[in-house]
C-alpha cells in the first residue's frame, strides 16, 4: 500500500489451522519469536496461556486459534509454534499461532469486505487472495476487546452541559472498518446524546462527505481510523484537505498502533489531531477543539 505519506504496509500471513491462512497488517507487528515457556497468570481469560518475558517486557500470550473459535493449540504442538508480538490499542500482546508463512506486499485497495454470511461477531475485517489462496484479515481490535474488556469509565466521556451544547449542532461522521471500534465510538457519543453518522470504509465516508457538501450541509468533524482496507485514513484526510468544499472539516485520525510515526504522518496529510484509540474523554476533547476552531472561524468571517 502506498498512501499520501508514502508509507508501505504489508501483510503477515500465518496459520491457525492446517488449511486456512490468516493475516494482520505489518504495522501492528513488533516482532516474531519462537515459542518460549510461559508463566501462568492466575484468574486470566481462558485464551491467555500465560506471560512471557521478552527483551525486558512482560506480556500476556494469547492462543489466537482458541480466541477466534478454532481448536486450541496442544502442548505437543508448542515446539513448532511462534509468537506474534503486537503493539495495538496501547497494549503489548503476544499471539501464539501454529505457523508463520511469510510477509507479503499488499494492495489494500483490493481487500474485500467479508461475506455477510459470516455473521456479525466474526473476527474478520476483510478477505483477499495471495498466490491463489484465500486469506482472511483478522480484526485484532475485536479479539482484544473480548480478551481484555475495556472498563466502563474509559468508554463513557464526562463533559459539562456547555460542552455538550457546543458539540450537538455539529455534523459528525465516525469511520472505522472494525465493528468493535464503531461500537465504542457510537457508545461514547450515545452516552452524551451527541448525534452522528457512521461509515464502514474510507470510500463510503468520502462519498457521504461529497453528497453532504453538494446538499449544502457539509460535515464539521471527521473521526476516522487510520488502518483500513481500501481508502485508508491517511488517504481520506489527504483527499478532504485537497478538496475545497470539504476542507473546512476538522479531521481526527485514530489508530490502534502505539506509534509516534503514525501520529506524525497523520499531521503530514492534513489531520488536525491523531489519537491512539480508544479513550472516550480524549476523543471528546479533540472534538471540542474542533468545535472551538469552527466557532473562531465563524467569528473571523462575520
UniProtKB/TrEMBL annotation:
Modified residues (4-aspartylphosphate): 225
Any single GO BP term: phosphorelay signal transduction system
Domain CheW-like: 8-149
A Pfam family: Response_reg
Keywords: Phosphoprotein
Signal peptide coordinates: none
Domain Response regulatory: 171-292
Cross-referenced PANTHER family: CHEMOTAXIS PROTEIN CHEV, CHEMOTAXIS SIGNAL TRANSDUCTION SYSTEM RESPONSE REGULATOR CHEV
Identification of the protein by name: Chemotaxis protein CheW
Amino acid at each position: 500500500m502506498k498512501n499520501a505519506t508514502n508509507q508501505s504496509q504489508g501483510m503477515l500471513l500465518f496459520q491457525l489451522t492446517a488449511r486456512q491462512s490468516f493475516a494482520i497488517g505489518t504495522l501492528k507487528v513488533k516482532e516474531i519469536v519462537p515459542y518460549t515457556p510461559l508463566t501462568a497468570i492466575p484468574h486470566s481469560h481462558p485464551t491467555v496461556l500465560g506471560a512471557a518475558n521478552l527483551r525486558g517486557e512482560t506480556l500476556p500470550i494469547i492462543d489466537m486459534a482458541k480466541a477466534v473459535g478454532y481448536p486450541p493449540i496442544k502442548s505437543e504442538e508448542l515446539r513448532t509454534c511462534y509468537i506474534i508480538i503486537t503493539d495495538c490499542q496501547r497494549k503489548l500482546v503476544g499471539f501464539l499461532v501454529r505457523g508463520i508463512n511469510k510477509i507479503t506486499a499488499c494492495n489494500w485497495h483490493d481487500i474485500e469486505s467479508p461475506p455477510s454470511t459470516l455473521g456479525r461477531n466474526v473476527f474478520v475485517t476483510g478477505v483477499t487472495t495471495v498466490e491463489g489462496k484465500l486469506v482472511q484479515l483478522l480484526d485484532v481490535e475485536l479479539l482484544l476487546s473480548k480478551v481484555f474488556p475495556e472498563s466502563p469509565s474509559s468508554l463513557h466521556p464526562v463533559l459539562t452541559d456547555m460542552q455538550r451544547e457546543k458539540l450537538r449542532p455539529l455534523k459528525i461522521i465516525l469511520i472505522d472498518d472494525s465493528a468493535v471500534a464503531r461500537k465504542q465510538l457510537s457508545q461514547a457519543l450515545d452516552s452524551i446524546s451527541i448525534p452522528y453518522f457512521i461509515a464502514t470504509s474510507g470510500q463510503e465516508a468520502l462519498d457521504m462527505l461529497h453528497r453532504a457538501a453538494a446538499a449544502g450541509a457539509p460535515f464539521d468533524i471527521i473521526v476516522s481510523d487510520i488502518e483500513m482496507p481500501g481508502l485508508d485514513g491517511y488517504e481520506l484526510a489527504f483527499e478532504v484537505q485537497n478538496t475545497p468544499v470539504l476542507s473546512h472539516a476538522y479531521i481526527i485520525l485514530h489508530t490502534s498502533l502505539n506509534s509516534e510515526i503514525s501520529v506524525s504522518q497523520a499531521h503530514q496529510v492534513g489531520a488536525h489531531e491523531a489519537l491512539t484509540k480508544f479513550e472516550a474523554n480524549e476523543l471528546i476533547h479533540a472534538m471540542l477543539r474542533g468545535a472551538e476552531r469552527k466557532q473562531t472561524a465563524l467569528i473571523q468571517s462575520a
